[in-house]
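#onboarding

Welcome to the new folks! Below is a worked example of what a typical request in this channel looks like: someone posts a single protein sequence, and someone else replies with the predicted structure as tokens. Don't worry about understanding the tokens yet, we'll cover that in week two.

Example request:
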Amino acid sequence: MLPSLYYLHDLRLPVFNMTIKKDLIYGCKNLKKLFGKIDAGEAINLRAFQKLISSISSFDGFAESDLQSVKKGAHTYILSYIDPEKLAFLHHYAESQGEDRVSGAMQNNSHAFKVNGSLLLIQKYQNNPDVLIFKDDGRIPKYKTNKSALILENRELFIHSDKTFKFLSEHYQITEDMRKDIDVIFGAGTEITNSLHLPFLSLYNTLYLCLDLDLGGIKTATSLINNLPSSMEIHFVIPNDVESRLKQVIDKCSPEYMQKVYNLDENMPQALLPCIRIIKKHNTILEQEAYLYGY
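Example response:
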């Protein structure tokens, strides 16, 4: 017996929610695959079909007479008949949601797709930041790089790079004399790991990663180390006073968070093992903005 589908209009989801929008786009791709099987006379997972249909607020669902099927497995059916008008609507819906931000915008779905390019803010000594545009054609923007670059994960440290370098000169191996020979790049969280940036970052001999001392920072650093040339020198910035700073953090990490730390792959890049050991030792993490305290 075919599970009832006519009630599905009662399970509508609010399409203005961007998370749901992305789910719908993903669902449309699966819907296309399911229709490919249906058109070929192959069995489909009816529960998956039901779930996808229920997310379409503009579809009123199926009446019992709209579908005919033959059961093939525990949850699989061959749909031998679907009401032509409703089938045409669902085909049109799946095809109209777009393939990228531009085509997706035709149905207000642009935010469900990645931008076909990226930006990097980069600053040289005593200059205003330059904006480098990376398009999806893979070409590297023309820019005269220094041999070394400092990647700052968060906006606060980038805006106040003078204070950041003062801190680093006192608590890390980057001296103020080195400042003029180091490009400063705004990492914008994990955005720095965008594959479009990798050919450009590969132009440097040395990268200093000034990131949050937490799982997010370790994840960003791991991605960069694993995807950039092994010949590069890549350093995770750990200030010489980091342990005293961690001791001042009152709130400790939850057991669930610490379990994720302990579950980190033992084959992680060697440069990141000190970060992991410090977090384990103090049972807490540190945001990089703390480095500016007192400066």
